[in-house]
Amino acid sequence: MPTLSQPALLTGIRYLPDYFDCAAQAALVDDIRGIVEAAPLYVPAMPKTGKEMSVRMTNCGELGWVTDKERGYRYQATHPVTGEPWPPIPQTLLDLWRDVADHPQLPQACLVNFYSDKAKMGLHQDRDESDFSAPVVSVSLGDDCLFRVGGTKRNDATQSFRLRSGDVVVLGGEGRLAFHGVDRIYSSTSTLLKNGGRINLTLRRVTR
After folding, report:
1. Which of 120, 117, 114, 112 is nearest to 189 (CA)?
2. Which of 29, 70, 104, 107 is the most buried (most CB within 10 A)?
3. How many other C-beta atoms lie within 10 A of the C-beta of residue 186?
């Protein structure tokens, strides 16, 4: 599998362009529509300040990542608005995990983030899990984005590259706790989503 070659990137960060072809992408979007019907998109809020994030999100799997002003970042088994359990992770994503994760256990959570053309995500680490031995596996669908990734310290040098629909990124090994973010969305670069925008699917193992 191809690996990003920039020297600033940590070992274990893998970029798999065009992993999903057009038919597979369309099938995934159908799966996501079913997920959103069962677990509607909502706007998460930052801890302490309560400032709303620019993405809308939901989850699937036995656990879902949530955040709000009162309790902060965490995983829980139910939707924060409806109180219902999250729907299951689609088989296509479980197959992806088996193919690229190199981990004996399946993911417990899949975050579904929807980015409008104005949305972005600041540099952050995925560290709300109790087990960092499993990678974070990310799928891009829809419009292109400018993805930025660095080291395990916020002030480490970063590299930016364009993610397109069907691309997969794996943050594992030394790169599991790399800071990363989305600086911008390139509007109207894909026709996959009827109303435009980008969907990011992030598979995670939460506990050992």
Report:
1. 117
2. 107
3. 15
